[in-house]
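Table S2 (continued). Query chain:
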Amino acid sequence: MRTDIQIAQEAVMEPIAKVAERIGIPEEGLELYGKYKAKLSEEFLDSIKDRADGKLVLVTAINPTPAGEGKTTTSIGLGQALGILGKKAVIALREPSLGPCFGIKGGAAGGGYSQVVPMEELNLHFTGDFHAVTAANNLLAALLDNHIHQGNELQIDSRQIVWKRCMDMNDRALRNIVVGLGSKADGFVREDHFVITVASEIMAILCLAEDMKDLKERLSRIIVAYNYAGEPVTAGELQAVGAMAALLKDAIKPNLIQTLEHTPALVHGGPFANIAHGCNSVRATTAALKMADYCITEAGFGADLGAEKFFDIKCRMAGLVPDAVVLVATVRALKYNGGVAKTDLETEDLKALEKGIANLEKHIENLQKYGVPVVVTLNSFTTDTEAEVDFVRNFCQERGCEFALSEVWAKGGQGGVALAEKVLETLEKKESRFSMLYGDDLPLKEKIKTVAEEIYGAGSVSFSAAAQRQLQKLEELGFGRLPVCMAKNQYSLSDDPKKLGRPEGFELTVREVYVSAGAGFVVALTGDVLTMPALSKKPAAYNIDVDENGTITGLF
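Corresponding output:
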């Protein structure tokens, strides 16, 4: 079997200017990064603002398992299939983080014959967006510590510094550190922390900002610390905004690449959905809607995380109205949820499938609460049996969902035609009555409870003493109308990754709450979720290499 990287390296790519031309982007509307990738210019983005929007289709999935689901692969395959059917489609995806690429999860270029290319460049440095976010984040951290060292005019309480440094790599040793050791000239000694770049508030801001003006306004609102009076100190007060914006001036522009079948793909921004809002940039999504009849976008991890945040955060802020949702599952993953060991997933097991499909059922119910038509697709494996597929099909149809089998990994766009036809039929026959889960006026604690009980299936929510105090303070500071961004493990609907299937009546624990004032949401950390991942015992980095001809190997 050919690996993803072998398929990608054998692809014959078109010059990106030719791909752009087919969706009405003139050559002067591109800022080229070599022959096969480019950024959209500000002039072009301004020129399409008044165009009518196409249809917006969100691709999401059940909770991820070691068996694999294929959400990004399905997004790309669906976009390719729409092209085969003569439809004008643009795919809008997130950029991969280096952490998972060298860790265990892998990249975000899709798989098989439904990939975006150049795959290696996308999964590694791409156009430098993540490096710009990292630099801007750490510039702010450096300015903060320098301000304290130079006299602390803002009276910052070093015990209440909330801004963390970041890097785009899994490094457990940097989660909790001490800085300022050494001589007096080396700064004040204090505890500090690192998060992975995708968890930085600047990444969230980059993905939610409408333009440079909005970006700078959001950057200025970032709370970096509190002073001795307990009042917030912002990046604007530290005079950091102009320099950070200068670092981000190119990163804010959406990136254009192509699929293996030359379908245009805007790949921009990359927050994780388990610790951030998990969606690609508003700029990329809105541009795709202006350029195409169909925008296919995705949100990270399972629908309990990515889709919920897409609806309740991204759509709320950007005024987006999704027209349909594609919910991705696999027979293998459903059997895993039903208790089958990873080594036995290739054997037909209808009993386990019947038990594990409860996870799919909960996600269907959750998505239907938003009033958006749902199409369930099974990402096909050769080991799936006819009885297993029929069982899932009947299960979905009994719950008012459309169903289609997807073979996009093996067959590319042609393997997604059935899914594309089902999506087109759904868009034509079923109206989206989209509404968000909660209103702005609901208190923060009630917003958290609403997500926990309605989406996760929790019976109750427990708030630590620290979280209680933090919620009260945020309400007093005027942040009570913001949406909540739940930070939760991705493997389970609960905050316990070992509870598979459809856990119910459990107690969700909120241990910490803080505001991302620039991004415009309040983050609630649940369970043991971490904002700096770690490497496994045998990380993927062990298998990655480059030969004397510059060809990368082992990258999936």
